[in-house]
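User: Can you predict the 3D structure for this chain?
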Amino acid sequence: MGDLRRDGTGLLRLAGATDGATDGAGRADGAGIPLEIAASYRARTRGLLGRTGIAGALLLTPAASVHTLGMRFAIDVAYLDRRLRVLAVRTMPPGRLGRPRLRARHVLEAEAGAMAAWGLVPGTEVTVEKQAGRDGAGGHRSGA
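Assistant: Here is the predicted structure, written as structure tokens:
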């Protein structure tokens, strides 16, 4: 999985979003959606717990299910396969257990309503551009 094996930050882009077109977040500059990557056990366990919101999205990897126990706000959840293709999108209110998805390898979380605004639907392929972190590693991740 290359650069998705470490915690960090990056940009989420939806397939088909190019410069001059909206990127699904209402921005016409193709800047992408701010993304936090939770790849370590500790970061995945913490997730969005204790927060009152998130600007952008959180990618849990690897993951096949999530819960909203102890959360303060409703979230949109997108289950992604190993090629970063959206399998399903659900909105989960606080205090719920999500059902595991058999083919899911990653889970994308955002505030409720955000994914609909981005146009993220089943079948959409996303790319992750990880920003350079403390180890100086950066790169492009597009699936496969």
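The first helix runs from residue 41 to 46. The CA atoms of residues 59 and 108 lie 5 Å apart.
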